[in-house]
């Protein structure tokens, strides 16, 4: 002890160095961690896979948010279970996207935005039955 302070151990120094690598502002580059420790690990191919994964998750969130899976007159209990499972899937994917965005990587941010845009466009065009559905009106935000 020196003046009431303990000398840093090799483990605490390693943890401090790891914490210093975390970004708190947006940055560009493949040297980042997305969702899992040491993934994609600075490898260009794995970084592209990570961006595609974020993109696909964002598309799925939008498709699950704007599609109707139950027909009128369906069994209410079964319908409620299916809607609950789809809701859990949608919220889980949305949380994973949010955690990926917390890497503060610009590529991840753009992949998420483009995925949400494509998913919204697909659901607006594919799921509108008539022109009166106004497919491009923004739906109300709900939790």
UniProtKB/TrEMBL annotation:
Its main location: membrane. Keywords: Copper, Copper transport, Ion transport, Membrane, Transmembrane, Transmembrane helix, Transport. GO terms for molecular function: copper ion transmembrane transporter activity. It comes from the Eukaryota. It holds the Pfam family Ctr. InterPro entries: Cop_transporter. Signal peptide: none annotated. The keyword Kinase does not apply. GO terms for cellular component: plasma membrane. It is a multi-pass membrane protein. The chain crosses the membrane at residues 45-65, 77-102, 108-127. It is found in: Membrane. Belongs to the copper transporter (Ctr) (TC 1.A.56) family. SLC31A subfamily. PANTHER family: COPPER TRANSPORTER 2-RELATED, SOLUTE CARRIER FAMILY 31 COPPER TRANSPORTERS. This is Copper transport protein.
